[in-house]
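Entry for the shared binder. Reason: the reviewer on the internal report wants the predicted structure included alongside the sequence.
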Amino acid sequence: MKKGLLAILIIFVFAAPVFAQDEPMAIMSPIVVNFNAGNFGFGLNFPINNRHDFEAHFSLINIGVESTVTNIGMSFSPFMLVTWMSLDDSYNDSELLFGGIFLLNAMVYWNVFNYTFGSGFNFFIGPFASANYLLVEDDFFFDNYIFTLGVQMGLRTNHGRFQYNLFSFELGYRNINGNHNYYIGGKFDIVTVAIASVFSTPRRWR
């Protein structure tokens, strides 16, 4: 059962672009939909020792639209779990590791450079701006936010009117609740990570 599900996921994410090449009207569509099941990400905020040093985040259902004429697009996610860890041991335990769930997560971007290769894989580079708002822990916090402005590059698969994001890396400026930081990080599609994890797990042959 597990092997069958993995086979379906692999065909959908990696092989489907081959069939998309036979749909010229879909490829010529002025608007495409960007999607992935969710991302697992990590990053570093500089300068160090500002309580937001190391960051890990997990999002679900990232969906958006992009113009094939201008390469300008936007995306949205209704769920992003963020955890920060401070590298400054002067804080107490509750301050060293903290975070919550953001319910409003949006990004706008412009892929200045697009390069398609292989069977529909697309590499992109360009500026972006993102915002995360409405933090939930044991209550709703309306004064917590993340604003990021920078450059991203990544890889996705092209399925005609549909594009699936595999991974990306980001570099730029990040404002966390008024704290100014430089940020570098990456995020990876959870389906791709799951497939890689299963196939990289050592197997015992009987």
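Summary line for the report: The chain has four helices and ten strands.
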